[in-house]
């Protein structure tokens, strides 16, 4: 058989594994967010030490590189004041007449199920800089949002 038709290994035909994409812009985190990143790295270190499977090890190391980069680029934000919405704030507001309370966090600690949204989300970008009693346009509607109260999120520090 001609050498041109032989494969040296099946690895040549596998899909390439790319690094986990990192969001553009600054990596702003609360103190809670920094602790979460550190805990994730510690967990990955333990898993890497205990893993013998090559494929699993590659995946774990890929995740470790991502979280290591997130740790090295983390910029901790100060605990916000009570008078203005910022990263690390818990804010209560009305949106189209419905009352909601959310925490504004860094990107890696956002969790919609826990009412934590990233500072880069459109709703958070609209709220940041507002004070209680102020209104803002949102989603093409004027005065759709009214901030009722704000202060540091309970676990932001």
Automatic annotation (TrEMBL):
The keyword Protein biosynthesis applies. The keyword Disulfide bond does not apply. Keywords: Elongation factor, Protein biosynthesis. GO terms for molecular function: translation elongation factor activity. It comes from the Bacteria. InterPro entries: GreA/GreB_C_sf, Tscrpt_elong_fac_GreA/B_C, Tscrpt_elong_fac_GreA/B_fam. SUPFAM superfamilies: FKBP-like. Residues 82-143 form the Transcription elongation factor GreA/GreB C-terminal domain. This is GreA/GreB family elongation factor. It comes from Sphingomonas floccifaciens.
């Amino acid at each position: 058989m001609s050498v041109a038709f032989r494969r040296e290994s099946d690895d040549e035909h596998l899909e390439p594994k790319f690094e986990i994409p990192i969001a553009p812009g600054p990596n702003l985190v609360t103190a809670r967010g920094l602790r979460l990143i550190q805990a994730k790295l510690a967990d990955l270190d333990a898993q890497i030490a205990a893993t013998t499977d090559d494929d699993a090890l590659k995946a774990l190391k890929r995740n470790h590189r991502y979280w290591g980069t997130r740790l090295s680029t983390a910029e901790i934000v100060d605990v916000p004041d009570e008078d203005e919405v910022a990263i690390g704030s818990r804010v209560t507001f009305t949106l189209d007449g419905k009352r909601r309370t959310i925490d504004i966090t860094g990107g890696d600690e956002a969790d919609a199920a826990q009412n934590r949204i990233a500072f880069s989300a459109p709703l958070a970008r609209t709220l940041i800089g507002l004070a209680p009693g102020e209104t803002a346009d949102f989603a093409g509607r004027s005065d759709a949002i009214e901030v009722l109260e704000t202060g540091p999120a309970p676990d932001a520090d």
